[in-house]
């Protein structure tokens, strides 16, 4: 696809995943309802893993060099923290800042919730919930095996679209209310950085307001990336922004890019009756995934469905349908650069990754140059200027920095920044951030893929081992008649360190967190294998996975001593 | 209809494939075949739904020594990757299917020589096997002979099913071989040279072994969609039934006359093909057909036949030629309606002739019957019949018909009517030519050889007057057959 190549080329090397998938909506709701207990828990957990600095007051010495001048005699700021962009990253940072006692404002030029809530993970989950049920109801064989009889299943396109739209507005309201009730000022308009610690905002045609803040977080997110030569008309040649409105269900849609976004949409469209053609620039479909998982996923998600594909080709020119002509896609060989084929389809969805939305931010005022649109940052999300120096009091989180284009990664980065500005050094371990693709069945992963782990092992001179378990052996999965699936663990047999976990199967997206928590907390295989899982649950797939891992005998047994109660 | 067909589909492989030997007790399946001391390694059936396998990698290289039980090759099926082990000691003489390529289940993928000296012989065999027909299958290897458990899903089942899959696959569609198609050609298909088909249509066509190049699509801009493929497969099955109950073409097999043993009182589930036929028969009810009959005097034709029979001309070829010449003057009868909204003027006149073969029926197609002279046409027909008997007809040789002929005259049947194969415009049922007492216009009574023909046509596109005019032309041609030998 164009997707992988372009998304890789425009994003930070660490970011393998074009965003669009997360549990953000649900998590924020949970936060709103149980905010106190939830946050306390999170904090206590964090305390264990980060070194806690002595001073915990509100204004604290920041790690940046020039901090001393601000920390001296109180210089007056309008806010302690201003966040530009009220997406999931900005929202997560704002909530945590309030909890830390910071006076916080958030600037939003569009709608609260950003891509995830309005044009990404949230509405797509609504569509996928529908497609999952449709798929189940249409699977006569599956239904019969369960003893169920269902008459022909149908759907009402507008009602499905409304469901997605209603969900987005519901989550958006929840987000807005959660910030209002905590006292976060929501400032409307596009934010621009005027200089150090100074932001102006305002709607076009209205007088600008200028505010000062001790610290500023850029969280402006991303927009769908459309490669050159592709003409998007919003009707027949569309991006995920349009597709989520589900204005049409075309008979035949080409999806350019077979990453997360493309895969999820192929799941939706085929369940609703479309036929799909994937166009992928690399030689393999689903290039971001662990190859073994990708291969299995292709057997289940692509081959038996009404999907075909062209790999190793670029869609160099896409012309929208007009005057009775179909959408015309010109394919060019990715290697020889010679024209290869022409497709005529009813619609084309461009899912070639996402590009950062950082124009008009006023970065030139503080001598910051974007790299292919991304704001350069260090591992603590501190913005780096054109000379390679840190810009004091300025941070950038989420898709705009391109480290890992996932909603929950943005939120975690925001929380990490708030931790730093309130005096606690914190570095987020991106290898512990899970990712999920909500197809049916789902795909999820955390940490390294097998090739990545092999490369690392070779470079650093250690061994890796692989353990695998199948959903076919899981009682709950079999009860649901969903035995198709695989969980895979990549670990170090010498130390028991978990390097990566990949799951393909029913509810994989919910199952991955045991592994991601283990990586985040540094739990080793030899420890976690003693954890108990309720029977019969899908979580036993991971239980079995950890138990099947073989750790060298020399490694010491559980670190924590068991305590009798 | 696809569901049932999908599950039991077996590729239309040539029946000349010798039965490979598989064993499920020792997974992965091994498939080896004895041919003197050079054995062929076949693509094994790794699952009941596997139709072809892709070679992921060759573990052994050419010339390498193998011991029984060694993994030789990794094969990817629709379900999994599996190692395939050697069943014998020997040397991997030649790899016939390279890594990354696919082969149908049962096709040879490599040769195994018993000794190093025989490697050269094996290589020679490869170069000759492309031209020469393979030798008959010798006795199965003793090690695998007792195992019959795989006969249902192993490649051995191919031989039994191939006739069914062949006849499933044919359809009566217009040929695209000569470029420009009819009026509903896809604008971007470059005059029919390029197939524009939806992903599912392609998948189905692959499953049924159907050549999409012959199909006219009913989708937007003439795109071939799934229902076109299903209809084409249906048309094939319908054509079978339309003339079933017996068939013409004593050239191939004498009907068995119910000689096969039948378990009386038993309920027999439909086979895949019968299922398809059943559905197609029901589907044919959605096409409004009508019939027009005509009595044609064949004295002149019979006389001509006697004259040129020695030159190898067959009656079938003469009838096909006469029909094609009549169709030239009445192109509407050679058209087809697919979606009920438009119809296609087929650019070629391809006469499909129903022929009974062992366990079914097939319609070899005489392409461009209007343009080819009667002698060539007769030779072509002979060739098609030979191929059909050997079950070696290529898809374009049985699925490109635009008009079908069905002849039961050789059984003494004097009149019958045929069911229209979906996707074609008309089919003609031909009865026996027999001496008939006829009164002529000048008031005399005479004895003439006459035959009755009865055309079934799709009334959405072909009307009564069209058929009447066509039959009148046909009668003129047959009654004055000088044009046939031009």
UniProtKB/TrEMBL annotation, chain A:
Which controlled-vocabulary keywords does the entry list? Chloroplast, Disulfide bond, FAD, Flavoprotein, NAD, Nucleotide-binding, Oxidoreductase, Plastid, Redox-active center, Transit peptide
Location of the active site = 535
Q: Which superkingdom does the taxonomy of this entry point to?
A: Eukaryota
| Cofactor binding, note field | Binds 1 FAD per subunit.
Q: Which residues form the FAD/NAD(P)-binding domain?
A: 79-414
Molecular function (GO) terms for this protein are: dihydrolipoyl dehydrogenase (NADH) activity
**Cellular compartments annotated:** Plastid, Chloroplast stroma
Where NAD(+) binds, per the record, is at 257-264, 280, 353
Instruction: Domain (Pyridine nucleotide-disulphide oxidoreductase dimerisation): give its ranges.
Output: 433-544
Which terms in the GO cellular component ontology are assigned? chloroplast stroma
Alphabetical list of Gene3D superfamilies matching this protein? 3.30.390.30, FAD/NAD(P)-binding domain (3.50.50.60)
Q: Which reaction does it catalyse?
A: N(6)-[(R)-dihydrolipoyl]-L-lysyl-[protein] + NAD(+) = N(6)-[(R)-lipoyl]-L-lysyl-[protein] + NADH + H(+)
Where primarily located? plastid
GO BP: response to arsenic-containing substance
Against Pfam families, the record matches this protein to: Pyr_redox_2, Pyr_redox_dim
Share what the entry says about its subunit structure, partners included.
Homodimer. Part of the plastidial pyruvate dehydrogenase complex (PDC) containing multiple copies of three enzymatic components: pyruvate dehydrogenase (E1), dihydrolipoamide acetyltransferase (E2) and lipoamide dehydrogenase (E3).
> What family is it from?
Belongs to the class-I pyridine nucleotide-disulfide oxidoreductase family.
Q: What is this protein called?
A: dihydrolipoyl dehydrogenase
UniProtKB/TrEMBL annotation, chain B:
Q: Which domain of life is it from?
A: Eukaryota
Ranges where the record places region Disordered: 130-164
| Presence of the UniProt keyword NAD in the record | no
SUPFAM superfamilies, per database record: CoA-dependent acyltransferases, Peripheral subunit-binding domain of 2-oxo acid dehydrogenase complex, Single hybrid motif
UniProt keywords (A-Z) are:
Acyltransferase, Lipoyl, Pyruvate, Transferase, Transit peptide
Q: Which Pfam families match?
A: 2-oxoacid_dh, Biotin_lipoyl, E3_binding
GO MF terms here are: acyltransferase activity
InterPro entries given for it? Answer: 2-oxoA_DH_lipoyl-BS (IPR003016), 2-oxoacid_DH_actylTfrase (IPR001078), Biotin_lipoyl (IPR000089), CAT-like_dom_sf (IPR023213), E2/Pdx1 (IPR045257), E3-bd_dom_sf (IPR036625), PSBD (IPR004167), Single_hybrid_motif (IPR011053)
> Key word Repeat present in the record?
no
Which top EC class is named for this enzyme in its record?
Answer: transferase
Peripheral subunit-binding (PSBD) domain residues are: 196-233
Q: What is its EC number?
A: 2.3.1.-
Q: Which cofactor does it need?
A: (R)-lipoate
Occurrences of domain Lipoyl-binding (ranges): 38-113
For this chain, the family text in UniProt reads:
Belongs to the 2-oxoacid dehydrogenase family.
> This chain belongs to which protein, by name?
Dihydrolipoamide acetyltransferase component of pyruvate dehydrogenase complex
């Amino acid at each position: 696809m164009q997707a992988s190549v372009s998304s890789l080329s425009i994003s930070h090397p660490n970011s393998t995943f074009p965003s669009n998938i997360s549990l953000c909506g649900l998590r924020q709701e949970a936060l709103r309802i149980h905010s106190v207990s939830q946050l306390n828990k999170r904090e206590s957990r964090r305390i264990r893993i980060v070194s806690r600095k002595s001073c915990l007051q509100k204004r604290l010495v920041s790690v940046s060099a020039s901090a001393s001048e601000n920390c001296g005699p109180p210089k007056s700021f309008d806010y302690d923290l201003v966040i530009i962009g009220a997406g999931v990253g900005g929202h997560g940072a704002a909530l945590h800042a309030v909890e830390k006692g910071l006076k916080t404002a958030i600037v939003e030029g569009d709608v609260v919730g950003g891509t995830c809530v309005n044009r990404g993970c949230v509405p797509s989950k609504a569509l996928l919930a529908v497609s999952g049920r449709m798929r189940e109801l249409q699977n006569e064989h599956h239904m019969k095996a369960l003893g169920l009889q269902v008459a022909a299943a149908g759907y009402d396109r507008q009602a499905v679209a409304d469901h997605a739209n209603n969900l987005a507005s519901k989550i958006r309201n929840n987000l807005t209310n959660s910030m209002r009730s905590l006292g976060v000022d929501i400032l409307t308009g596009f934010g621009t950085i005027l200089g150090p610690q100074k932001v102006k905002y305002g709607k076009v045609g209205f007088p600008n307001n200028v505010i000062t803040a001790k610290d500023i977080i850029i969280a402006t997110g991303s927009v769908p990336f459309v490669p050159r030569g592709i003409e998007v008309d919003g009707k027949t040649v569309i991006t995920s922004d349009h597709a989520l409105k589900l204005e049409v269900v075309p008979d035949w849609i080409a999806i350019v890019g077979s990453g997360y976004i493309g895969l999820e949409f192929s799941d939706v469209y085929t369940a609703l009756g479309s036929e799909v053609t994937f166009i992928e620039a690399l030689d393999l479909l689903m290039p971001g995934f662990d190859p073994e998982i990708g291969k299995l996923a292709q057997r289940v998600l692509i081959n038996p469905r009404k999907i075909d594909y062209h790999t190793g080709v670029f869609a160099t020119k896409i012309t929208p349908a007009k005057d009775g002509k179909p959408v015309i896609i010109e394919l060019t060989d990715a290697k020889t650069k010679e024209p290869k084929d022409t497709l005529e389809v009813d619609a084309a969805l461009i899912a070639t990754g996402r590009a950062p939305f950082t124009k008009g931010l006023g970065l030139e005022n503080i001598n910051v140059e974007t790299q292919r649109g991304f704001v350069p940052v260090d591992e603590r999300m501190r913005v780096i200027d054109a000379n390679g120096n840190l810009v004091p009091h300025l941070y950038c989180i989420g898709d705009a920095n391109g480290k890992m284009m996932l909603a929950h990664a943005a939120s975690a980065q925001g929380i990490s920044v708030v931790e730093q500005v309130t005096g606690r050094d914190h570095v987020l371990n991106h290898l512990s951030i899970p990712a999920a693709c909500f197809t049916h069945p789902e795909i999820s992963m955390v940490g390294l893929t097998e090739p990545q782990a092999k490369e690392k092992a070779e470079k650093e001179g250690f061994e890796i081992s692989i353990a695998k378990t199948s959903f076919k052996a899981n009682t709950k999965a079999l009860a649901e008649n969903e035995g198709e699936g695989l969980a895979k663990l990549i670990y170090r047999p010498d130390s028991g360190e978990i390097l990566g976990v990949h799951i393909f199967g029913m509810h994989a997206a919910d199952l991955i967190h045991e592994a991601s928590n283990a990586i985040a907390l540094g739990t080793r295989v030899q420890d976690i294998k003693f954890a108990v899982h309720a029977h019969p649950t899908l979580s036993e797939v991971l239980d079995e996975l950890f138990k099947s891992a073989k750790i060298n005998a020399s490694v010491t047994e559980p670190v924590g001593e068991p305590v009798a109660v | 209809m696809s569901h049932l067909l999908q599950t039991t589909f077996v590729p239309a492989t040539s029946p000349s494939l010798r039965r490979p030997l598989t064993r499920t007790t020792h997974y992965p399946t091994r498939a080896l075949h004895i041919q003197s001391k050079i054995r062929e390694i076949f693509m094994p059936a790794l699952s009941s739904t596997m139709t072809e396998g892709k070679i992921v990698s060759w573990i052994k290289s050419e010339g390498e020594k193998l011991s029984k039980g060694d993994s030789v090759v990794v094969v990817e099926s629709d379900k999994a990757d599996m190692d395939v082990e050697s069943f014998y000691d020997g040397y991997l003489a030649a790899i016939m299917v390279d890594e990354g390529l696919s082969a149908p289940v049962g096709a040879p993928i490599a040769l195994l020589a018993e000794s190093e000296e025989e490697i050269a012989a094996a290589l020679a065999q490869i170069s000759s096997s492309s031209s020469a027909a393979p030798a008959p299958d010798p006795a199965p290897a003793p090690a695998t002979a007792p195992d019959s458990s795989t006969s249902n899903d192993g490649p051995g089942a191919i031989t039994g099913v191939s006739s069914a899959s062949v006849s499933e696959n044919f359809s009566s569609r217009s040929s695209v071989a000569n470029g420009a198609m009819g009026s509903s050609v896809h604008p971007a298909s470059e005059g029919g040279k390029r197939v524009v088909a939806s992903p599912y249509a392609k998948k189905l066509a692959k499953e049924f072994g159907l050549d999409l190049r012959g199909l006219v699509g009913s989708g937007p801009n003439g795109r071939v969609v799934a229902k076109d493929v299903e209809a084409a497969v249906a048309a094939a099955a319908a054509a079978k039934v339309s003339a079933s109950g017996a068939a013409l073409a004593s050239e191939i097999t004498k009907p068995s006359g119910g000689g096969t043993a039948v378990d009386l009182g038993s309920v027999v589930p439909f086979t895949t093909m019968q299922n398809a036929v059943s559905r197609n028969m029901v589907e044919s009810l959605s096409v409004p057909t009508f019939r027009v009959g005509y009595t044609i005097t064949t004295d002149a034709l019979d006389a001509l036949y006697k004259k040129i029979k020695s030159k190898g001309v067959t009656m079938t070829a003469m009838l096909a030629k006469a029909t094609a010449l009549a169709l030239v003057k009445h192109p509407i009868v050679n058209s087809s309606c697919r979606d009920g909204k438009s119809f296609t003027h087929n650019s070629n006149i391809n006469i499909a002739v129903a022929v009974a073969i062992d366990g079914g029926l097939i319609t070899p197609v005489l392409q461009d019957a209007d343009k080819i002279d009667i002698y060539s046409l007769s030779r072509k027909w002979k060739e098609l019949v030979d191929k059909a008997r050997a079950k070696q007809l290529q898809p374009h040789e049985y699925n490109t018909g635009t008009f079908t002929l069905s002849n039961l005259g050789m059984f003494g049947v004097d009149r019958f009517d045929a069911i229209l194969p979906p996707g074609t415009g008309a089919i003609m049922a031909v009865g026996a030519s027999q001496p008939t007492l006829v009164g002529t216009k000048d008031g005399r009574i005479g004895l003439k050889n006459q035959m009755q023909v009865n055309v079934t046509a799709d009334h959405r596109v072909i009307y009564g007057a069209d058929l009447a005019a066509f039959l009148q032309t046909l009668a003129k041609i047959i009654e004055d057959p000088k044009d046939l030998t031009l």
